[in-house]
Batch of 2 targets.
Target 1
Amino acid sequence: MSWETVIGLEVHVQLDTRSKLFSGSSTTFGAPPNTQAGVYDLAMPGTLPVLNEEALHMAVKFGLAVDAEIGRRSVFDRKNYFYPDLPKGYQVSQLQFPTVGKGSLQITLDDGTQKVIGITRAHIEEDAGKSLHEDFQGFSGIDLNRAGTALLEIVSEPELRSAREAVAYLKKLHSIIRYLGISDGNMAQGSMRCDANVSVRKLGATEFGTRTEIKNINSFRFVEKAILHEAQRQIDLIEDGGRVIQETRLYDADRDETRSMRSKEVANDYRYFPEPDLLPVVIDEAYIEAVRAELPELPDAKRARFVSQYALSEYDAGVLASSRAMADYFEDVARLCGDAKLSANWVTGDLQALLNKSDLEIEQSPVNAQRLGALIGRIKDQTISSKIAKTVFEAMLGNEHSVDDIIESQGLKQVTDSGAIEKLVDEVIAANPDQVAQYRAGKDKVFAFFIGQAMKASRGKANPEQLNALLLSKLKG
Amino acid sequence: MTRRTVAELSRSLDRGEISSLELTQDYLARIRAHNALYNAYITVTEDLALAQAKAADARRARGEHGPLTGIPLAHKDIFCMQDVLTTCGSKMLANFVAPYNATVVERFNAAGAVTLGKTNMDEFAMGSSNETSFFGAVRNPWDPERVPGGSSGGSAAAVAADLCAMATGTDTGGSIRQPAAFCGITGFKPSYGRISRWGMIAFASSLDQAGPICKSAEDAALMMNVMAGPDSRDSTCVESPAPDYMTTLNDSLQGLRIGVPKQHLAKGLGAEVEAALQAALKVFESLGATVKEVDLPNNHLSVSAYYVIAPAEASANLSRFDGVRYGYRCASPANLEDMYKRTRSEGFGSEVKRRIMVGTYALSAGYYDAYYIKAQQIRRLIKQDFDKAFQDVDVIIGPTTPHTAFKVGEKNDDPVTMYLEDIYTIGVNLAGLPGISIPAGSAVAPNGRSLPIGIQLVGNNFAEARVLNIAHQFQQHTDWHLQQPEV
């Protein structure tokens, strides 16, 4: 029997505001516990919230980037529950009137086709603090540095149909928020967190199955693994005659399994009601247009432009446009060297391989765009060959020497003096009479042998085209 | 004995007839002598008061003073005051020393007022008699067998017994005006949003409003000049600057249109209170005002709507008192749930727990629409009734309370009867309007004691200056506000 997986994602993005959502406390990550908690964050009696305009601005920016309806009048609500890391005993969130309404984004499937995924809503809310259960001899510690940090919770429609689609959606979301500069999207540090609602149904069925919510998934890889595992668990359960229970499950990456956290059937009644300490947020057309004017070129538009402007393949354009920093890097290189195609090959090839190997982001690249552009420029003007360029590239790591200095000091400059190349060719022909005879007897393959010998004799520096032409004419005799 | 109003004390200080230090020592002596009986203060900040008085005298000597510089003041213990115990009348906060100042406190400090201490109040401002305080009931200076009203009962008693020159209060459903009426003094609740709520411990956020408790409308204007105005720390505080409330106090009442709600003259109103009201209306007519009846058809629903909205907001506002970060925590909790349950069961009194339960219920799934949403709809209707009435009149005048002060313990077993005593004040909070209670008569208790009667003047939104002007003109032509109990 064939099964279909139905997935909806709830993604919490920590907005990169300088201060918290409702207080002036700093949001810097990693400060000593409770040093970034002011009187409001500690829920001191008598304290009141004041909305951080920057957070609203970022939410609207996101909304416009995913073509969403912007709530002209959004309302904050109190979501009531008791937990020690929730100082007020309620979380200020948006229930009925979120700042961002219905929108959508486009993902690329494995076969290259595009699919539009609906976004139900995105609402602004405050984060809780952290409970620390170790190192306190039977007590729990509470760190309220994170309490009150601005979050944007982005809820997708249940329109994702596989773990791969879910990952593609998440990566696209990640790319967009990074483009917008509203969050660093660092999943390991928790600035982007993902909960997945997963259900299965028989292929062709129209009703949704009972869903479970998987919490605590903190990497792209785990999103895929958690969903795959959970879908299979549900299928096995149903095929064995069981029934899926609506519940919250926790993903355990170490064991690669999900396990039950709490049943939704006995879930909290959060007793939402409008937060009386805050006024409704009214957004007018002028505000929306001002934010729209600040929107950068987004990944889809950039990819399309790369294809049309630079004649790149869809794939290369997609890779380069996936991150704003990568795209900017590529365009800098292309502008400096004047060859977009070659630049794309280098950025997605040697440079990407280097970054992957050292686990670095493009922003931390040991070779900046100026130097890579200069290197490719020297290939273009035939100072060095593509092959020698790889040697130069290696030599550029770990120092700030200019490309030209490296070529000069290591004597890597290409030999284009036809007299010198002719001398090389003559020597190679003279030294290998057997192979000459074979070639002349019609064994064309031996030609590569002569190229290899001549290149070796020039220590790779001979201009390949000149060498090719000379060898050809001399061998033909 | 004649009352010393803030205005008079300020003039005495100006003329150098008395220093702030002498005045402060005098008030501190009165507190030492009489507070044991009235229980008006929870905390007396003697050292602070003396230091502030000296500083005020120095400021006056340098000519850097305002009218309130050096005037002794008491704050309701709902206002956070840095490094001072701030209890909100609760065991829950009996050990809580606030780490910051409320805006109201900050502004009186900046004005150079002298803080004598923090006054007693109903626990978390939930009560109409000041009997729910963890620190014991407050006694009415006119008759210590009787309550001073609540929740700002300590502030009202302190002003009435002259244990301070002026005091701050807060009013969620009548908590400034009702005790002012019971204690024969002047109590003003401005429009919602006119005074910052920052640092004022929340009971019901959409209704809570700070205001002056003092001896005259003129004193209230002097206090409003310090308290009112925008505050970027309170999003619900209006951004428009507050006017100088002193400049309009003497405006004429010629042509003033007074509305008297017919619902306020219906059954339930005590005969003595009604007589005092009618007499007061005659005074206003003699000053050139006209009186007509106005209709507030939904006023009878105000108490019911209030007792859904206020507890609903309170149930969330009081969630922070969980024993985790500050305040009371139960002894040796077995686990987290045990800590929550026992901390809150032991730390809150019964009236507070009753309202948390009611509010939690009203917000619960399945009841939200029937209670919370319905109550908000009624609130809108009540506001619309007032809006309509103010198309025809400039001010609405009626009784503040149906009766004079009741006896300590008299209504303890029947919360609903107690709630219904707030029938004239609650609608004003639901509509967010400014309302003042001023003394306008007295009744004689069976024991021969004289008991004050208050009337309420309600203005349109942000018409504080007009309300104070009307009250002041009444006080220029009557002397009820100057009567003082035998202390």
Target 2
Amino acid sequence: MTGNKQLIELPHTADRVRTGVPGLDEILGGGLLRHRVALLKGGPGTGKTTLALQMLVNGATQYDEPGLLLTFEQVPSQLFADAAALGWDLKRLHDENRVRVMFIEPDEVLDNPGRQANRLLVNIAELAEDHGARRIVIDSLSHLGSILSKDEARASFIKFMLELKALGLTPIGTAEHLPEAGVSSIDAYLVDTFILLDRQADRRTLEVVKSRGHRHIGGRHPFEINGAGVTVYPHSYPEPADGNAGAAPAPAAPLSSGVEGLDEMLGGGYTPGSTILLAGLSGTFKSVLAAHFLTSGEKGSGLWIGFRESAADLARDFAGHGLAFADAGIEVLEGLPGQDPVQKILAAADELITARGIGRVAIDSLNDLTTGLAGEERAEAVRWFLRRLRARGVTALMTQRLARVTGRNPLSEIDNAELADTIVYLGLVEIESRLEKVISVLKHRGGPAAGDLRSIQATGGGLVVSDRFLGISGVLGGVALGHRKAQIEEIFQPLYFIRDFLKMAGDPGLGAEQRAQMLGNMGTETDRVIGLLGRYFDQPQSAGKEARR
Amino acid sequence: MSPRILAIDDTEHLRTVLRLTLEFKGHQVQLACDGAEALEAARKGPFDLIICDIEMPKVDGVSFVRQYRAEFGPAVPIIMLTAEGDEKIQQARAAGATDAIAKPFEPLHLYETVERHLSRPGAPE
């Protein structure tokens, strides 16, 4: 037997009290349980009162459920002013008896606790009956505790709540969260739904610690308080209803990356509906490559999720690469790294994708999108978003800044590699004392990948992926050893010619004229080799001429 | 009559070396810069053997072989030149190439290969 729990029968078809707070009902699996006690607990300034008030205002304005507000902390005039700042006309709701505010001065209750509680219940009962109230917010339960019997704190709290439930009310209480205070009489054991609010600098989160009798989405969900009150961004979402999540994309013609050479490396292009990660060092054209893809799609089919630049700046930058970003009808969603919760950005993107029929999405960058998120939370948010995109057949491209790649297996150094179907690596290598930008396809599900390393260059007319490098090792570590394919050929071809012609020159059957012609050709080829070596090793060409003099 | 050879490469220097190498053995050499130019040349005159680079702009070596075979049949041996790996050589063979030589090529090896294919049964004298 586990005490109280046995006495509480879980409703099968739970009647829910919808909070109307964006994102919260989703987390609560539909809302609070009717006639059950909910507790909003958090430190000062975490938004407890705002959240509770919002549930009350929404009840009155959206769900035709009048409410009562029992406040010990704020005088009504102050409360009305605070509510007005959030766009709620609490004064009018109060006057219209849709949200009745009951203010109790702390001094008042200190006098005679036991009797105060009873008088309070009588008042509540009257108001509830007169105005058909369905919800009651108690701000705060700590203050309420001071008017309950001290000897039987737990019992009197339970009794008080039972009375409220008997009046047809769903009690929503607030309480200060004092981690050092430990378990109090109004803690999670006595309530049915327990929501913990937290605030670290500008980042607010809430967590459903307990929700007796109904399922909820666990973990900390970011939320913000803006001009319209609280908006919660669930960090995890139900699977898409079409059950298509994670399904392999149907075979379809590859989509051009917008860069011919890269398409060749990808065996045609990106796989439609897949996720592509463009990972690389800073300044290696990751964003430009992403813009190539968006601008090569149908007009109005692209969405750019960026953090560093405005739409105008992007258009200007990409115009410098010959890309008509401004004319491609690309939606630009700007986020503030580390300030906008990732869930908020992704939810906004999700909405745009559905509303506008977006087929191509670029996230620039994954680093900015997930700033300030811990590993699992980050992976979960991104995974959810990618599943949604996949279910809608959207092709997603994410850029990822790498600090540097040090090892022989760059895949192991790229975060979120498992999320992507295709990984394109962009790097810088030193070849022949020059810094070259290089591109390689490290992974390509659903199509052949060349797996080789090519140079990538910016021209006024877009990126160009050209020469293949041959015989190079250590490139992914940033220091390449070796030569370009063309350079190998340039030096060795004349040497082979000279060597074989020297062998033939020894043939006694060779005519004098033919031999002279042959020696002349070998001289030309030798000069060619000297010229090439002089250029590669920065030797003055005259050295050869002097030697021959 | 000396054999007529069509040599195709997009690099000027390599075309020169091919010409010098083959002419030294008394072959008649015609040069082309890419597959498109080579097809034009092939239409104008018959050749006894073709040497063709694989990596070229416009019409590359593999496409050239495919188009040449479709138009002129399997009679004339085509030797590919390539710095690419086996994969490209396999593609070229599948398209109808007869043999392949690695780049940079060694003139003595080229002679040997060319002579071998020219002296095949049925090959022109």
